[in-house]
């Protein structure tokens, strides 16, 4: 499975309640987004993953995965891919054992090399905005033809197009369409509107 071919926009979610998961997933689907990364930053993350795993048409992954034992927990809950802020070989190897794609964060060529050595073809760049934005990815990707990058951290509606213009960037990720304030207030129509806008920008 290629996570980056699933959808050009990958929302990064922090759930404050697992009850938010299904309405959130339905709002994303209504806006044309069929993939979601639910982070383990809150206790609602794991049950939220389990809830979204049961939503037809949605591919749910886990984010903020930093330890190998987290991989087992999220895969057992139904996660179909695993995103990390950085590169940890034990996490990558646990993902391989469990048969799920890993999307580790990279910031430097050395980290990319570690991922290539583990057989990965897709990585996340984090925090993309602070690292230098699209120019950083253009330079970082040059020695790694065929490798695909997903920028995350500081990406927004105004900048996503500049990243997606790079041949090595098939998808971007970010939280702007799924902010905790929107989820807490149940503003599902706004989630759908921002999702549709992001998809239109990505595909337009
Ligand atoms: C994160 O760390 O939450 C993701 O990279 C998304 O970052 P963002 O909130 O800047 O979009």
Give the number of domains.
1
Q: Assign the structural class, choosing from mainly alpha, mainly beta, alpha/beta, alpha+beta, or little secondary structure.
A: alpha/beta
The N- to C-terminal Cα distance equals 25 Å
At the first level of CATH, the class is Alpha Beta
Instruction: Identify the CATH architecture.
Output: Alpha-Beta Barrel
Q: What gyration radius follows from the Cα positions, in whole Å?
A: 16 Å
Shape, principal axes of CA atoms:
globular
Strand content: 15-25%
Give the biggest beta sheet. Answer: 4 strands, parallel
Question: Mean of the pLDDT scores?
Answer: 97
Subunit structure: Homotrimer.
EC number: 4.1.2.14
Catalytic activity: 2-dehydro-3-deoxy-6-phospho-D-gluconate = D-glyceraldehyde 3-phosphate + pyruvate
Pfam family, one: Aldolase
Characterise this structure.
The protein is an alpha/beta fold. It has a single domain (8-203), classed as Aldolase class I (TIM Barrel), CATH 3.20.20.70. The chain is built from ten helices and nine strands. It has a four-stranded parallel beta sheet. A three-stranded parallel beta sheet has the order 6-7-8. Strand 4 (82-83), helix 4 (89-98) and strand 5 form a beta-alpha-beta unit. The longest helix is centred in the C-terminal third of the chain and has 16 residues, at 188-203. The model has no long low-confidence stretch (mean pLDDT 97). 3-phosphoglyceric acid binds next to loops. Pathway: Carbohydrate acid metabolism; 2-dehydro-3-deoxy-D-gluconate degradation; D-glyceraldehyde 3-phosphate and pyruvate from 2-dehydro-3-deoxy-D-gluconate: step 2/2. Keywords: Carbohydrate metabolism, Lyase. InterPro entries: Aldlse_KDPG_KHG, Aldolase_TIM, KDPG/KHG_AS_1.
